[in-house]
Amino acid sequence: MTDKKKPLSFQLDVSDFLPAEQEEKQSLVVMRKSVSFWKDGLRRFSRNTIAMISLVAIILIMIFAFVVPYFYPYSYEQQIRGSENLAPMQYSQQELELKENGESVFPHILGTDSLGRDTMIRLMMGSRVSLLVGIVASILVLLIGSTYGAIAGYFGGKVDLIMMRLVDIIYTVPDILIIILLMVTLKYPLQELAYSSPAFEWINTVGVGLICIFIVFALLYWVGMARIVRSQILSLKEQEFVTAARALGASHGRIIRKHLLTNCMGTLIVTTTLQIPSSIFTESFLSFIGIGVAAPMPSLGSMASTAIDGIVSYPYRLLAPAIMISLIILSFNLIGDGLRDAFDPKLKN
Amino acid sequence: MGKYVIKRVLLAAVTLWLVATITFALMNLVPGGPFLSEKTPSEATLKALNEKYGLDQPLIVQYKNYMQKAIQGDFGPSLKQRGRMVKQIITTGFKVSARVGGLSILIAALIGVPLGSVAALNRGKWIDNVIIVFTTSGIAVPSFVVSTVLMLVFSIMLGWLPTYGLSSPLHYIMPVAALALYPTSYIARLMRSSMLEVLGQDYMRTAKAKGLSQFAILFKHALRNAILPIITYLGPLIAYTLTGSFVVEKIFTIPGLGSDFISSIINRDYTLIMGTTIFLAFLLITMNLVVDIAYKIVDPRIKLK
Amino acid sequence: MSELLLDIRNLRLSFFTPAGEVKALNDVSLKLEEGDVLGIVGESGSGKSVTAYSIMGLTVHPGRIIGGTIDFNSHNITEMTEADMRMMRGNEVSIIFQDPMTSLNPVYTIGNQIREVIMLHTDKNKAQANERAIELMELVGINEPIKRLKQYPHELSGGMRQRVMIAIALACEPKLLIADEPTTALDVTIQAQILELMIELKNKLGMSIIMITHDLGIVANMCKKIAVMYGGKVVEYGTTEDIFYNPRHEYTKGLLRSIPKLNDKEHKKLIPIEGTPVDMLNPPAGCPFAPRCESCMKICISKMPEYVDVAEGHYSACWLIQKEAFEQGGETNE
Description:
Chain A is built from 15 helices and no strands. With 349 residues, chain A is mostly helical. Chain A folds into two domains: 45-77 and 123-347, MetI-like (MetI-like fold); 79-116, no CATH class.
């Protein structure tokens, strides 16, 4: 064909034709290090810049919401007479006098509201409520949903059919309507319960509003999780390692816990993380329309709601909670997306 | 297919009945009944009121009566808006809400689908990143934040747009924008991932191998496949828009069903709460049903039995 | 001597991935004469499909041709505009893909998808295109073509769908038909039917075919010439007889050892090729097959072997051939 195909077109040495050593051959085979599922996922997650920034943001907000209030000179319910409606960094007359007398007065970084409460500390407590609701509600959803889904998926057949029919029904129930209804009706029985017996005093400590939210979320939001877990279990239980475990005489509970749930850990983590922002979303919505967390406990939603009345004179009162709530939801969403990309790419939509 | 439709309709009916029953039960669970929260009426007035609204009868009879009337759309008189029937309030409110909500979803689809497609076609480029940032923020920002910030900027600071009511087309801009942001972002994100999946399909390669132009490949072969899954998400989206409408209507003082619902809860107008809940539940469940069945019809991959 | 239809010279193609440049094709040269059937054999990742796609201009991002030429019908494809390429695709060159289950668009009818290519490349109207579609469906052995026209892909079996793909490919009577593992995704009995159909169509229509497969049995039946590819290179090229009876490359020999032969008297054990394919991200400096080669020599690891003509139209790139020549005295040393 072409002239390039002449044998021995350049000088060769006999030694070149000696058989190659095994090591020499091996050196050509590039072995990629095998990494475990978790290591691999974590590595991918930590390389995701956006997710890492969001993670840092959430950690900072957590410090802001849970740690800083202990060192803050004002409390969220403390009404400072004479310091009403202050602009950010503004001091009231009496505070100025105190300052002139040489006392140190901590500035109202974000001003005060119409009752003379420091907006900054209220923002911290509001963020605390949001985070608390998001995380506790998601854990409730995780526990209920994964247990329910795992049982339905593992036993299959009639059990599955009946259990999933119930899920189907709850799934089609317009959740927001039921949430509002339950919030409205649960409040009084809970309050009565709290006053009737000292065993239930903790209800007042946590707040009736918060408890209502948890109950409602636990009642309705687990169905999505249950569906996802069930479908994972359905495919996992057909695999050999489950048969092997069964052959070795493992109990149902052990198989579900040790073999099935551990294998859908990735999905569980991702779904739970993405549940957090959606719970926070709902809580802020409820507080905004006035049926969420009860006063004087602030919530980002109720802070925004009260700020609307004074929106013309004090627009910054709206912006602080608005930015905070958006930041929290956005960060959790991005962390969830990052985790999904890292651990469970199949789960997309 | 027929079997599927029957199954879905039955499921929807059961759900609706369940919602109605739960609503009824919860409303009667409230200690003291609906009139107690008012400025403690005298014993006689209370008795008269209870008689008037049939609340003196045993619960099961009340339930039977209520359900019978509810099926015909009669939810009784409003407790707080004297002289108005719940049905009347719902009808007027719904007309307003449907206009705002429908417009928002329409706009969301018209913007979201192209936005998501453009992002997918330019995967990894700057425009894709801009769209991702926009849509990710769009689903993270609650509608009360969007509404209030819009109002702050465009009405109070700039003075361009009116703040409340719906008396002119100009009035629609802010509420519709506030309501449409979430569904737009949601549709765009879905469309992007759906489009990316379609672009990787073997039949796209076949289309190219046939010698089709880029335009024909995209509009004929990609778009139709990518848009199909979006339909199934319209149901949940309608629900989200409804949730959004509660706050958006409150903020912009729009006399819609959403603000009716919220004010009925705050005023403890029990008949109105029950009526709106059942009506909205009916609306959402029907929408979901219609959307799911429509999807099965539109997608030829689902075998028609 | 028939006309040269396709002439690929020194084609180099790389995928520019975030992890680095993947050299998918490394100096690939191939020739195909009009009316011939060329088989390209190799395992997954050897570059056989990439070669075929580059003939169609179907190289997907992030892949890019970085060197060499592809002359089809005396036109250099690598320098064609996209518009010219479109005129050619589906018209002069067609392709049948591996998986008929996913290669048809699920939301359009069979008729729509066959008509599309006819109406694109001819001036037939819809009714005429429909007639032609029915004609084509009969040609590829689809029963009840009129009914099938209105059906969707999911209503057809895999074998039927592949027949539809063949009908689409043949719609404009192409000069060259590329079949990219057309039977891999099908049941064994259906495989035989589709292969029979292709041989029959080739005899009837007389187009050239490039048959891409990892199945030596298929090429033995159909092809006149065979190119064996490994690691983005054609390691051996020759007539079917050359390849089967006088294989010169160690990889070809390995391939032949790994397929069962019905006419073997004693039950010989099948010998699989040990090891895994080369990492195309870091291709070795020497022969790509060296790490898996039983007769690997020191030079194989450090230097890429050049092509050696072992007979008229039969060449291979293996140091063993040169070793033999060297041992015979090296008188050809120039």
